[in-house]
Amino acid sequence: MSEKQNYRVLVAVDPTESELKPTEAGLLWFKKWVSDHRAHVDSVFVSSNQYGAIPVSESELSDYVKNLNLGNDVTSKILNEKSSSRRKAVETLVQYSKNAQDDLIVVSSHGRSGPGRLVLGSFAESLLAVSPVPVLFLCENADHVKPSNKMLFPTDFSKASKLALDLFLEQNSGYQGEVILFHAVPPPGAIFDTGVLGMPVYLPDSYWLELKAWTDTESEKLLKQVKEKGFNARMVVLDAVLNTPMAIQSTAQSENVDLIAMASLSRGLESAILGTVAKEIFRMRKWPVWVCGPETVFNEGKINEIK
What we know:
CATH topology of the largest domain: Rossmann fold
Number of strands: 12
């Protein structure tokens, strides 16, 4: 299994917001990844013309970045955005990342609405919607997590999820830990949709039997593909799952994973599909979450090749 050389990582920081500063525990997995891949880290602060915005000098940004201890060869730069638009700030960061040919963008997943919440339409979520490369959301509440050398990848077996998994494994080639693939199956007899009169529609028992057989086949096939790429992997399938994000959280806790990775297909700057599973997971801010967003998936041009 070949490993790409010279990975480039862009870390979006904001020295003016104390709640946006990643914790040592939250940076643990990322620092190890940077060290293992000898990746170049470029830290950027997008300074927009917002009312009451605190100006930051190059030396202040440099000191802030040094205190994060991301590595010895870390550059820092201020990108000035004249408007106060979040959309423009995101576009500025994304364009900079494209020019630098980054492989990953890293951002803290905190919100400005107070502790414990991430506002819909925030910089982080807007970034995920348009980023041409995967986004790593750093976490805040990771002090309870002890390094386990395990990574969790929830999948629905869709083409997009398989492509995201391929990209994730590519970025982690040479990984000596365990990759845990996860799939949640809804309970038999669950409401599938609503009819034209608003009445619940229940699927027949034959559907659930076919779904179980399909899940078993897809699980075996995906697990085999991951192992053939040289990874130590296993599959976890949970039946009768009513709440997929909570099932993922429970599995991540019981397995004590270092990271959760997954795909998200919400498109549009302000997120056309709200409350997706990926967003529910990184809003918990308990683990670093690597997310392959819609632009990354579709810009790869490989989605129709996935079987």
